[in-house]
Amino acid sequence: MQSLLSMKQLPEHAREKLLFAAMTLFASPKGFKETSILDVVEVARVSKTTFYNFFHSKEELLSTLFEQLADEFLQEVEKAILKEKRVAYKGYAGIRRYMELCKQHKPITQVLLVASVGVSEEVEEVRRKAHNRFAAVIYETVRGVLPETVSEQEMKMASQAMVGAINEVIIQHLMVSDEAEVEPVARLLNRITVGSFTSLAMGRTPLSR
């Protein structure tokens, strides 16, 4: 399947048409709540029957769209980390790339981080999986450079916390201002991340006492 983030026009296949239409509509001022299935099929240029051949509901369409977009975002983050050869800069490279994508695709980021919250249990499950995958990327990036005294549980919990912090900064800072710059914010978030894991390594957290 072609990357949704790179699509500029309606694709050829029906399922991709529906996902592209959903992305376009959910990321528009109309948003998820005000968009109907009829709106989606009209933009996708398919019938309602075709819609129900692929999705049972608008919520299932959103969860599928979320999963695809989150996968594309995180693939880009992983590529940025792999491309950076300096171990100390890998975390920064991943955070910066994630923030670049969020700024470049603000309406889509709004859907992923804000509008999708609380829509349904199915969507929440996809949100949790995306959060956990991002945390796993952070965990894999740092675990090789931390001493064995830092437990796996501590590293995983810290990674989860960092994902929450990064997303909150994006919502509160990057999403509300067109003037917000990625570079200084990414550097700050990386310093916070490094500081948190350094603290773990030095045995300063309650869990390691």
UniProtKB/TrEMBL annotation:
The residues that make up the annotated DNA-binding region are 36-55
Tell me if DNA-binding is a UniProt keyword of this record: yes
Q: Which PROSITE patterns match?
A: HTH_TETR_1 (PS01081), HTH_TETR_2 (PS50977)
Highest taxon, organism lineage? Bacteria
Write out the GO MF terms. Answer: DNA binding
Alphabetic keyword roster: DNA-binding
Q: Which residues form the HTH tetR-type domain?
A: 12-73
- One Pfam family from the record: TetR_N
Protein name in UniProt: Transcriptional regulator, TetR family
